[in-house]
Design brief:
This protein is mostly beta strands and 350 residues long.
Length: 350
């Protein structure tokens, strides 16, 4: 049965060490996930989270690197071919199909030229995506009809070096072992700071079902920065914000996205205990390259009660660093039907 998952899940190489849920804070003993000091894919989304069969779909990612100063806000991303309807909807059941790449590129050779690169990737949802997906028990009923679906999994990889196929290990029974790794010029495999292996899911429905399952990405109207509304330019970029570095006691700043109520869409596939359809959940993840955040994630809209309040109620808290510098604040807004959008705000610490 289809779950209402996030648009992208990130796996760090060289081995799969865990899958971070979008609302998780860093567990005790782990690095603060809101601090960007390595290569990261912070968000991904499709222009149509629910796509029509036979239609073009564009998937975008927010890939950044905190390894440099100032950080890079656009890191090259490579894309593996789309995987359609993997068994049990499990991303790792796509891995065997990548063995076909070994016919043209051997382990130890640079795989990158054989792949599509860029922060966006376009593909066509197969015209038989729904028919090709096994019908699963418990499929939600919408308008008196089961909401059968198809699934496309798009793999996106950010690497500071180059990509290579990893040799098959017959003794490794782990189905989640990654088929691709990130290597430097001397063919030394790089680790989690330099490589992210992520994937984005896009669901397909027939036209009649799509008419009942309206689903768009959440909208960010503006960014509240300590009481000032920051609005994007026509190209979507934000002007730099200047704040003072900490000296002794620090002045904290409230930050958060303004997401209109129109983004809080009805979710016809989910119902409360009384059989009433629920709405989406909408939340924001926060990231910074310098300074720190109090939470890292804030819920904006609840599935039943709606908005959790104005910006003062849902804002995160930013504490500037103790020295001058330049960096970035990123806010990624998600809903629980694979929708996402984001904002990048340059920071100048004086």
């Amino acid at each position: 049965m289809k779950s209402a998952s996030c648009a992208s899940t990130l796996l760090r190489g060289p081995a799969v060490v865990g899958v971070w849920a979008a609302l998780s804070c860093a567990p005790s003993g782990f690095a603060d996930e809101s601090k960007v000091d390595n290569v990261r894919i912070l968000g991904s989304s499709a222009n149509t989270p629910f796509a029509a069969q036979g239609s073009p779909v564009t998937v975008s990612v927010l890939a950044v690197s905190g390894l440099e100063s100032p950080p890079q806000t656009s890191v090259p991303v490579s894309w593996l071919p789309p995987c359609i309807n993997p068994k049990d909807d499990a991303y790792y059941n796509c891995f065997p199909q990548f063995a076909s790449l070994a016919k043209t590129v051997s382990p130890g050779q640079d795989l990158t030229p054989a792949l599509t690169t860029g922060t966006t990737f376009q593909f066509t949802m197969p015209a038989d995506a729904v028919a090709g997906h096994p019908q699963t028990p418990g499929t939600p009923v919408v308008g008196g009809v089961p909401a059968f679906y198809g699934l496309a999994v798009l793999f996106n990889l950010a690497c500071t070096g180059h990509l290579e196929l990893l040799p098959s290990d017959p003794s490794n029974a782990n189905p989640q072992a990654l088929p691709v790794g990130c290597f430097d010029q001397q063919h030394n495999q790089l680790g989690a700071n330099d490589f992210v292996f992520g994937f984005t899911t896009v669901y397909a429905y027939d036209e009649s079902m799509l008419s009942q399952l309206s689903n768009t990405n959440p909208v960010i109207d503006s960014i509240d920065f300590d009481g000032t509304a920051l609005t994007p330019a026509s190209d979507g970029t934000y002007s730099a914000v200047t704040v003072t570095h900490c000296e002794g006691s620090c002045k904290t700043l409230k930050i958060g996205p303004a997401v209109p109520s129109s983004s809080w869409e009805l979710n016809p596939e989910a119902f409360d205990l009384n059989g009433k359809p629920l709405h989406e959940q909408i939340w924001a993840d926060f990231y910074v390259s310098l300074g720190s955040l109090s939470d890292g994630a804030r819920l904006l809209y609840d599935a039943t009660s709606g908005s959790l309040g104005g910006l003062g109620d849902t804002d995160d808290t930013f504490t500037p660093p103790n020295q001058a510098g330049t960096g970035f604040l990123w806010i990624v807004v998600h809903d629980n039907r694979a929708g996402a959008s984001w904002a990048t705000v340059p920071l100048t610490i004086q």
